[in-house]
Design goal:
six-stranded parallel beta sheet; NADPH binding; 2 domains; 16 strands; Rossmann fold; ADH-like_N; Quinone Oxidoreductase, Chain A, domain 1; about 325 residues; alpha/beta; seven-stranded mixed beta sheet
């Protein structure tokens, strides 16, 4: 028997239940994992609320990210054995698998061995955010040393990952955050400059931070009307990656900015990387080396116990965290 988190109706954190279930042996191409830590993901909030790209099938499971120890492997699984330290990267749907539990099965393509210099909490905090940032900045964006990159919602786990990766490449990460409350933290995290968009003239401050050179890349989970201000100050051939919609209003983009500067604006999501074997392999290699060398260091905001999963969801919904929220299992 294993404790798992489930819910039988959409709604707030109060719908989450911790129950005991019997976990089946791993099927072919599956890895069974004894979970030690779980990373929370905003998609899980949306799924619980009934606002995700798929509707819950009750009783519904949750969980994209976890780290633990291999308990068993199914048929046709190569490269993994009982006792391996592993992490799970989001590359499946909640109606297929859920990582909120003491013992879980995961598809082998989503499992990666993590460097042994990481704690389970650090491992659970790492893969989603670094692979997400890697895909836009490196796989598709080819960010180069000396280029300027704007990172919106920079205090999120993915935002912090993008700051670290930009610094690894020798690029200049300019962090955008709503207020100045997180300025010092973002500077310590490696931002070359921090702009509080609710308190400062965003365009003027970005121009100052980039010496009026223009922005070569924007990495944005927000969207909304301010996209027009950002495209205005982008450099020729600049790339704009929209990977979320925290502001659900339509994006307003001046057509002559796109035409005159030959800008590329594209939607981007993690699954573009994690569902493509070749791209996933490159991402795993890059992130593994960064974690092993210490150049990539996950930031953990707060940890909760599995039995307090509802409180962990409430904390995420309050939007006050800096870095990753982790749930630990003894």
């Amino acid at each position: 028997m294993s404790k798992v988190v489930t819910f039988n109706r959409t709604g707030g954190p109060e719908v989450l239940e911790v129950i005991d279930v019997e976990v089946q042996a791993p099927a072919a191409r599956e890895v069974q994992i004894r979970v030690h830590a779980i990373g929370l993901n905003r998609a899980e909030i949306m799924y619980r609320n009934g606002q995700y790209v798929i509707d819950p099938e009750f009783p519904a499971r949750l969980g994209y990210e976890a780290a633990g120890v291999v308990e068993a492997v199914g048929e046709n699984v190569e490269g993994f054995a009982r006792g391996d330290l592993v992490s799970v990267i989001p590359s499946f749907m909640f109606n297929e698998y859920g990582m909120y539990g003491e013992l879980v099965n995961a598809p082998v393509h989503a499992v990666v061995k993590h460097p042994d210099n990481l704690s389970f909490a650090e491992a659970a905090a790492s893969w989603m955010m670094y692979v997400t940032a890697y895909g836009a900045l490196i796989e598709y964006g080819n960010l180069q040393a000396g280029q300027n990159i704007i990172i919106r919602a920079a205090s999120s786990s993915v935002g912090l990952a993008a700051i670290q990766i930009a610094n690894m490449l020798g690029a200049k990460p300019v962090a955008l955050t709503r207020t100045s409350e997180k300025r010092e933290m973002l500077l310590k995290a490696g931002a070359a400059a921090v702009i509080a968009t609710a308190e400062q003239d965003m365009v003027a401050e970005i121009n100052r931070a980039t010496n009026n050179e223009g922005v070569h890349m924007v990495f944005d989970p927000v969207g909304g009307p301010d996209v027009a201000k950002l495209t205005k100050i982008m450099a020729p051939q600049g790339m704009y990656f929209q990977y979320g919609a925290l502001d659900s209003r339509d994006m307003l983009v001046p057509v002559f900015d796109i035409l005159g500067k030959h800008l590329t604006l594209r939607g981007y999501e993690l699954f573009e990387i994690t569902t493509d074997a070749e791209k996933m392999a490159r991402a795993k290699s890059f992130v593994s080396e960064g974690l092993r060398s210490g150049k990539l260091k996950p930031v953990i905001d707060k940890t909760f116990r599995l039995e307090d999963i509802a409180d962990a969801h409430r904390y995420m919904e309050a939007n006050g965290q800096v870095g990753k929220i982790i749930v630990t299992i003894e």
